[in-house]
Amino acid sequence: MTSGAAFFDLDKTIIATSSAHTLGRELLNNGLLSRGSALHLAFAQLSYLFSTHSAEQMESAKERLSTIISGLEVSEVHRVAEETMHSVLTPRIYAEARQLIKEHQDRGEDVIIVSASIPDLVSVIASELGVVDVIGSKLEVKDGCYTGNVPFYCTGPHKAMAITNLALERGYDLSRSYAYSDALADLPMLELVSHPVAVNPDRGLRRVASERDWEILSFRNPVPLITPPSSRDVGITTGIALSLASLAAGVWWYQRSRNIPS
């Protein structure tokens, strides 16, 4: 008899933060990101905190991912991902998500994390949770470095397609399967299974879940869903802003001085 499986989104569902932006910040702290990429990261974090993750925003996120990883060595990214997992992300894994994953595993159901984030980081988080299987974005690698090309970005309908393919390959019965997510953008994934669950849902998903009488869960441990930036994060972002402002002022002064007759 075929069995069901449990498919979990990552950000805001398993962890109380954005995995990609957290990794990006640590890459910046390690001197692996350019100032331009850091600025992309600062704007991305603001967008992440207040967006509902529409298709357009997901495409924009793909472009930011491409910008951040382009030219980085795979081994360096993996090293920082390992450090980020232990120092930053482990304390932000929801205790409720960890318990729920264990319950599915105890029932003999496969658990699969489905995420658009950088595969190196998703795999490290999965390992921490005892999860073997991950469906994630595909990043092109050449000569040991990421090229910036993202052949497969695991969001929205692409998540649903990947889950369908895996179910066919392994014989999962989706009518006996579960899916967990926080975002309306993951509606195609949630609609695939007979047990869709909205976790800390955004406004759009909460509306759909309420209309369809889907289960809604609120995960609150170990930290609130949205946490204020640390003083270190504020310092980094402020430093970037001040540097850009200083550069702009310098250019203005130089151009002005050239236009003043001697």
Automatic annotation (TrEMBL):
Molecular function terms from GO: hydrolase activity; metal ion binding
Gene3D superfamilies: HAD superfamily/HAD-like (3.40.50.1000), SG protein - dephosphorylation function (1.20.1440.100)
Pfam families: HAD (PF12710)
Keywords, in A-Z order: Hydrolase, Magnesium, Metal-binding
Entry keyword Hydrolase: yes
Similarity comment: family membership: Belongs to the HAD-like hydrolase superfamily. SerB family.
PANTHER family xref list: PHOSPHATASE RV3661-RELATED, PHOSPHOSERINE PHOSPHATASE
Name used for this protein in its record: HAD-IB family hydrolase
